Amino acid sequence: MIGRDELIEIRDNGLWKQNSSLVQILGLCPLLAVTTNVVNGVMLSLATIIVMGIANVAVSSLRNLIPHEIRIPVFILIVAALVTVVDLLFNAQLHELYLVLGIFIPLIVTNCIVLARVEAFANRNPPLQSAFDGLFMGVGMLWTLALLGGLRELLGGGTLFSGIDMVFPGLQPLQLLPADYPGLLLAMLPPGAFILLGCLIAWKNWVEARAAARHSRRPTLPAAPAPMTDHA
Amino acid sequence: MTPPVRNPTATAMALRTALILLIFVVAFTGLLAAAYLWTRPAIEEAAAAEKMKLISEVLPRDLYDNELLADSRRLAPAAGLGLDEESTAYLARQRGQASAIVFEAVAADGYSGRIRLLLAVAADGTLLGVRVTQHKETPGLGDYIEPRKDRNKERPWIRQFDGLSLATVGEREWRVRKDGGRFDSLAGATVTPRAVIKAVHRALQYVAENRQQLFTVEGTGK
């Protein structure tokens, strides 16, 4: 089925090493448009996780039937059809949730991260692995977009979790900065999103460069058996 | 089964590929059609409920006893509504008497794009309520015209319009306080409220000019 190491690798790739927003830099269009606050970022990511999981499993199951030459049109067909079906099902069956997530689902058709994972992963791997790849790529996107959205709304208006009452009626957004904080419009507009995304990418590279430097400074240990203590 | 061909011709390859693509297209189109047909009744029901919920925000329930969504009329495009396409208005009636009209208007001069409004006006010209149904104003700045986003939860900005009419508010008062009018606005975001106030004012004038046509009960087909 699926090996432990394989699962860990898929997880690490999705969450950090191949993070869709910070490393692959894919799906920027909805990313920049939507991440004006944490709630929107999380909602878009949730919708993407659902669609990416289903699309990956579908393509992975059909991968032996799809001729190599026409794989891209077939993938687009599958992704677009599945997004539309998910959109319809949500609208009909989970209308309350649809009102919150609904506007994000059509955005996913234009999100090339779905097509990218289908082409790069699901086309070459079995369905179970592909499902996990979709899930973890989506979770990687989720934390990145939540962070970006949080930074933007904090700089832009001094709030956090604005719009939370749309998802959980009764909860109130947090006002972190004083109410007379003038707001930084730039952070709310797309250029601000680009700038902050650049800062996040720089931060990720810095963390990795530091980790690499620390690693190379350490004296090389003799090849020991892999430690059994695992903290997954 | 035919024995495997070692070197299929280009035409055969192309035909085979086209056939596979066709099968995928037919299969997924079928899937879409099935999903559409299966979900349509539920979606229509939800959309109607949605519309009623929105209408209930501008029109108090005790002002009508008719089937509101069935009592609709088409309004021609009008500058007073800011609309260049037809729109639908709903006539509220109480014991057969027209009591209010619910209709859409658009403020074209928002900070970024059109602001769509839903208004309910009583037969005597009193504004019962206004809601913003669609806008692209800057999040966190101009979006307080939407009560959900307004930080003032006790008295959201848009409720200032409740109960006003052309008779009680003079021509010059339909402005933000900053411009000498009677309406509040938040510092740094006055373009948005200006546009909304102008659109509401124009819509009330439209209702005054078209009273006859809007409130005649016979006007509808059924």
Would you give an account of this structure?
Chain A is mostly helical and 232 residues long. Chain A has one domain. Chain A has eleven helices and two strands, in the order ααααααααβαβαα. The longest helix of chain A has 31 residues. Chain A starts with a helix and ends in a 15-residue tail after the last helix. The model of chain A has no long low-confidence stretch (mean pLDDT 82). Chain B folds into two domains: 51 residues; 160 residues, no CATH class. Chain B is of the alpha+beta class. Chain B is elongated and about 90 Å long. The chains are: A mainly alpha (232), B alpha+beta (222).
Name the assembly state: heterodimer
Mean pLDDT of chain A equals: 82
H/E element sequence of chain A:
HHHHHHHHEHEHH
Number of domains of chain A: 1
Characterize the overall form of chain A: globular
Number of strands of chain A: 2
Distance between the ends of chain A:
19 Å
Could you describe the largest sheet of chain B, including whether it forms a barrel? 5 strands, antiparallel
Structural class of chain A: mainly alpha
Count of folded domains of chain B: 2
